[in-house]
């Protein structure tokens, strides 16, 4: 009886201690939760640029029901966290300027220094956007002269995710200097430098790219699942199957949305001026499909940033691989066509790079002209400048006996052949048999007339229609090249390829 009583009391004491310990632990946990430190996303750091003339969204995390105060310049706003510990304030728009300091106060205080108000541009895509200044043309001089304290640089670390992340894995804003610029995106830098010189306002360059990646990995799951070619794959994949995919095939192209989740979603609350994009090489074999993927990406990012006409500027693929001796089909030409079709969307612009590629290098060194041509599109599309921002763009065709006459838009001050003899090259012509032959072409006022003795009754024209149309030389007098084009709609070699 005494033994039973002893064990009964012992069990009772253990139970009481367990309840006491559990209660104490819960109380400590609740206390820690309530007084948790204020934490900010990685995208906020010293030297950052905040978007001018737009509501400035500041957000972060803290303990449940905690009061958080944000002070920037003469603005002060207070927020309280919800049950999820998140908080947010939206500061009134500010004009370009600075530097400013920002304080965020809760149970602890955070301070961010040397902040500028200016224009923030996202620079994204694959390797030609990722390609750094120190591996591009004229690196020693460019690095030595890269002292621009009002240009700020942020590089998003490479990471994938099967679900949208709420923060980046690292990164910080840096002043543009000979020390910070060598490893930064060359296209991004040359673009930002031109914008800064032309606008006179601070520029923030938010670089998020990954070499060799396909476009669908940069699109949110919701949007990519709406496309027929990807819907079945995504609908039949549950949360446990994401986990499995990421464990077995961690590469960024192994599943749609991986890079959107890890490298874009965390920055979508950050107000920006626009986006520059250099990608397409990895989708060239599925060029017809890109006609859907690329506009979907543009629409998706505009939706995520909450701006229906967020400026979106992109680079058309440069010339690459061995030139051909006779006109032929080309998947790279079809991809360039798909890119150009996206210009039907509002607030878009395209930098043509058909004249600055290299036959044996998919990463041409001349990133200066790419950045400048993107900047020209930005000055037109995003800044409303009345400038010639594009080379000639095919407009219409008329048949005149055995000849074809072409008209163009974006002729600027006039058309020109970039050739010391004044000959136009890169044009091919075909009849109803769909067999293309090189054409003789000449400029007539601001139109192009072409013919070929082998084609008595021409019906279609193609220009710079090749992987590497190295002889294409139609420009406007402002020095901008014509975009490759075709007048026919005959089925291409990537039609139906998925």
The proportion of residues forming helix, as a percent range, comes to 25-40%
- In CATH, the architecture of the largest domain is 3-Layer(aba) Sandwich
Q: Specify the structural class.
A: alpha/beta
Strand portion, in percent? 25-35%
Q: Main beta sheet, described? A: 11 strands, mixed
CATH superfamily of the largest domain: SGNH hydrolase
Indicate how many domains the architecture comprises: 2
Which word captures the global form? globular
Distance between the termini: 80 Å
Uncertain spans:
1-34
Mean pLDDT: 92
Q: Which CATH class of the largest domain applies here?
A: Alpha Beta
The number of strands is: 23
Classify the fold: give the CATH topology of the largest domain: Rossmann fold
Radius of gyration: 28 Å
Total of DSSP H or I helical runs spanning 4+ residues: 11
Describe the structure.
The structure is a single chain. This protein has 498 residues and is α/β, with parallel strands linked by helices. The protein folds into two domains: 35-390, SGNH hydrolase (Rossmann fold), CATH 3.40.50; 393-482, no CATH class. It is built from eleven helices and 23 strands. Helix 4 (186-199) crosses helix 11 (367-381) and helix 9 packs parallel to helix 10 (331-341). The protein is globular, with a radius of gyration of 28 Å. Residues 1-34 have low confidence and may be disordered.
Could you provide a short overview of the structure?
This protein is of the alpha/beta class. It has helices spanning 2-34, 127-130, 139-144, 186-199, 221-224, 228-235, 240-248, 258-264, 287-305, 331-341, 367-381, and strands at residues 49-51, 56-61, 67-72, 75-80, 86-91, 97-105, 109-125, 148-155, 174-176, 203-209, 274-278, 312-315, 348-351, 393-400, 403-409, 415-417, 427-430, 436-438, 440-444, 447-451, 460-463, 474-476, 485-486.
């Amino acid at each position: 009886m005494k033994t039973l009583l002893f064990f009964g009391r012992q069990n009772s004491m253990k139970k009481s201690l367990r309840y006491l310990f559990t209660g104490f632990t819960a109380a400590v946990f609740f206390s820690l939760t309530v007084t948790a430190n204020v934490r900010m996303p990685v995208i906020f750091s010293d030297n950052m640029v905040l978007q001018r003339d737009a509501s400035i969204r500041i957000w972060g995390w803290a303990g449940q029901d905690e009061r958080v105060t944000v002070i920037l310049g003469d603005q002060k706003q207070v927020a309280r966290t919800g049950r999820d510990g998140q908080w947010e304030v939206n500061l009134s728009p500010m004009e370009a300027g600075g530097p400013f300091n920002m304080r965020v106060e809760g149970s602890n205080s955070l301070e961010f220094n040397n902040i500028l108000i200016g224009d923030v541009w996202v620079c994204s895509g694959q390797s030609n956007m990722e390609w750094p200044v120190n591996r591009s043309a004229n690196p020693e001089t460019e690095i030595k002269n890269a002292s621009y304290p009002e240009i700020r640089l942020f590089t998003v670390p490479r990471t994938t995710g099967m679900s949208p992340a709420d923060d980046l894995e690292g990164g910080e804003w840096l002043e543009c200097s000979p020390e910070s610029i060598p490893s930064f995106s060359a296209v991004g830098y040359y673009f930002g430098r031109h914008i800064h010189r032309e606008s006179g306002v601070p520029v923030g360059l938010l670089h998020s790219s990954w070499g060799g990646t396909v476009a669908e990995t940069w699109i949110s799951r919701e949007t990519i699942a709406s496309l027929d070619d990807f819907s079945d794959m995504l609908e039949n994949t549950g949360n446990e199957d994401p986990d499995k995919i990421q464990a077995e095939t961690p590469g960024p192209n192994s599943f749609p949305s991986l890079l959107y989740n890890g490298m874009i979603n965390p920055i979508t609350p950050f107000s920006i001026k626009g986006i520059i994009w250099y990608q397409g090489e990895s989708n060239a074999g599925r060029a017809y499909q890109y006609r859907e993927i690329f506009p979907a990406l543009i629409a998706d990012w505009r939706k995520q940033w909450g701006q229906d006409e967020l400026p979106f500027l992109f680079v058309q693929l440069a010339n690459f691989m061995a030139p051909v001796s006779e006109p032929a089909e080309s998947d790279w030409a079809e991809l360039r066509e798909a890119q150009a079709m996206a210009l039907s969307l509002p607030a878009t612009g395209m930098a043509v790079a058909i004249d600055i590629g290299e036959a044996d290098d998919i990463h041409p060194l001349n990133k200066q002209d790419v950045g400048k041509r993107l900047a020209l599109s930005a000055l037109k599309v995003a800044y409303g400048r009345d400038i010639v921002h594009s080379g000639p763009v095919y407009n219409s065709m008329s048949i005149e006996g055995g000849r074809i006459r072409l008209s163009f838009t974006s002729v600027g001050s006039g058309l020109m052949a970039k050739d010391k003899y004044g000959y136009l090259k890169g044009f091919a012509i075909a009849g109803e048999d769909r067999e293309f032959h090189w054409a003789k072409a000449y400029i007539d006022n601001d139109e192009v007339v072409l013919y070929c003795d082998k084609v008595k009754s021409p019906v279609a024209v193609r220009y710079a229609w090749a992987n590497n149309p190295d002889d294409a030389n139609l420009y406007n007098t402002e020095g901008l090249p014509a975009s490759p084009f075709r007048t026919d709609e005959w089925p291409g070699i990537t039609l139906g390829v998925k």
